[in-house]
Amino acid sequence: MAALLIAGLWYSMTAHGQMPWNLDATYPKHETRAVWVTTLFGLDWPQTKATNEAGRKQQQEELCRMLDKLQEAGINTVILQTRVRGSVIYPSDIEPWDVCLTGKYNGHPGYDPLAFAVEETHRRGMELHAWVVSVPAFKMEVARKMGRKCLLATHPELLKKHEGMYYLDPSMPESATYLASICKEIAQDYDVDGIHLDYIRYPENARKYPDALSYSRMGKGKSKDEWRRDNINRMVKAVHDAVREAKPWVKLSSSPVGKYRDTRRQSSKGWNCYDAVSQDAKRWLREGWQDMLFPMMYFTGEHFYPFVTDWTEGTEGRPVVPGLGIYFLSPGEKDWPLQTVSAQLNVVRRQELGGQAFFRSKFLTDNTKNLYTLLQQTFYACPSLPVPMPWLDNEKPTAPTSPIYNMEKGLCRVHWAASTDNHPEAGVTYNVYAGRTWPVDVTDARNLVATGLRDTTYTFNPFQGLYIAITAMDRCGNESAALQLSEKPDETEALQNRFLTMENEEIQLTGTEIAPRYQITDMAGKNLQTGPWSRHINVAGLKPGIYKLSAVGKQGTTTPVGWFRK
Question: What pTM value is reported for the model?
Answer without folding.
Answer: 0.85
